[in-house]
What we know:
The protein has about 300 residues and is mainly β. The protein contains two helices and 15 strands. The chain has helices spanning about 5-20, 295-300, and strands at about 25-30, 40-45, 50-60, 65-75, 95-110, 115-130, 145-150, 155, 160-170, 175-180, 210-215, 230-235, 245-250, 260, 260-265. Strands 1, 2, 4, 9, 11, 14 and 15 form a seven-stranded antiparallel beta sheet that branches. A six-stranded antiparallel beta sheet has the order 6-5-10-3-12-13, with no helix packed on it. A hairpin with a 3-residue loop joins strand 5 and strand 6 (about 115-130). The chain is globular.
Amino acid sequence: xxxxxxxxxxxxxxxxxxxxxxxxxxxxxxxxxxxxxxxxxxxxxxxxxxxxxxxxxxxxxxxxxxxxxxxxxxxxxxxxxxxxxxxxxxxxxxxxxxxxxxxxxxxxxxxxxxxxxxxxxxxxxxxxxxxxxxxxxxxxxxxxxxxxxxxxxxxxxxxxxxxxxxxxxxxxxxxxxxxxxxxxxxxxxxxxxxxxxxxxxxxxxxxxxxxxxxxxxxxxxxxxxxxxxxxxxxxxxxxxxxxxxxxxxxxxxxxxxxxxxxxxxxxxxxxxxxxxxxxxxxxxxxxxxxxxxxxxxxxxxxx
Length: 303
C-alpha cells in the first residue's frame, strides 16, 4: 500500500473516531481550541512524576450547575511499535490501548486551595496510538512525526478527547478539577514493570499519555480565575521544581498553558416545543443524559 493511501486512510479513520466530539447539554466552560489541531502542548505524567493534574475553573454566569459531561483533551505519544523519539513509530490505523482515567471535582477553599471532593468518576478509555511516522512529509527537524494533511503540519503526539459522564453532579459556580491515571512508576497506584509492553521498544501507551493544555485565550465559555496557576500532585513537574503532595495549588508558571477542557451542564427542555426541529439533540434529561430521539424528549416534559 503506498504512503499516500496510508495517509488518507489514517486521516479518514481519525476524523471518524475523533473529528467530532459529541456534545450534550449546555456548555458552561470551554478551553478547547476550535478546530482542534492535530496536537497540543501537554503535561506528562510518567516523565514528570505526575499523578493528578488540573485547574480551577469558573462557570459562565446564569448557566446550569448540574454537570452532564466533562471532556478533557489528552495527548497520546505512544506507538504500536517503534518509538516516537526514534523516528520509527508504526501504528495500524485505529489501534488503541486501554487506560482507566479518573476525573475528580473539588470544592475551592480559602487561599484557592483544594477542598473536599464533590464527586469523582473513573472510566476506561480506548486511547489511540499516534499515527505512524511520515517519512515523506516529515523530514529533517520533523523526522519521526506524523503528518496532518488538514493543517499541513507534522506532530509528535495526537490530540485525543475523552469524555466523562457525570450524571447530573451538582456543583458550585467555581470548582477545582483533576485528571488522574496510573503509569509504570507514578499515579496513585503505579502499574509497575511487569506488563509485557514495558519491555518493548514502544513501551506502554499510558507512559506516553499526557494531559493537553491550551492558551487561555482559547477560552470561549466561562472564566479562568488564575491564568498563571494550575493544580498538581507531582514529584518533578511543579513551578518550583519541588514535589506537590497531595494534589494542590501550583502557582505562577502556567501562563498560556491551561488544561484543554470543556464542562457541559444538564439542559432539560422547558416544554415540548424545545424538542422539535432537532432541538432534542442538544438537550438532556435533568440528570444530564442525552435523549435518544424527539419522542423521548417530548415525553420528559409531560411530568
